[in-house]
Amino acid sequence: MRTRSTSNEEESTFRTHYTLFPLTFPAGPPPAGPFKVDLTRLKKEFLQLQSRAHPDLHQGNNKDRAEGISAAINDAYKTLQHPLPRAQYILSLRGTEIADYVDDSSDQGLIMEVLEVREAIEDAKTPEEIAKLQGLNAERIRDCVERLEEFFAKDDLPGARTEVGRLKYWCSIEEALREWEVGKNAD
To answer: Are the beta carbons of 36 and 26 closer than 8 angstroms?
Structure first.
């Protein structure tokens, strides 16, 4: 959500997902604020905002307005609570389109590693094998998130774009691992 504010704020002020959660993100998005999110604080602020904006608490025209506000809060919360959509959103705020970083196939080592992990998922025969792969993949995701924190703190957008591409691959693996069933392909 990047819309002009409709309150008495200056006309040039933009409302972002970060401005919807001022207690969680007092400094705003990176590089001014951190990439890392206190998920407990975010959820608490989300619930507080929804307790005031929920459409069932309003009537008439106020209900329509509350539906819009509630939807914006939900969208912002879903985006900010997970590293991949949060990073993509931050890059979009900075003018980077998804096509600029989604398919960075120049890292052949990464692509080979992803293909090997997909093959391991397909070959897995037990939940224990999947649990081991999930643990390894969680480490890869943590590493990507740590590098994103560094890139955003330094305002290194090219580095962040590349890392988002890597994170996208590992999040795809995470999804395949969640959906694993004995004998089912990881597609």
So the answer is: no
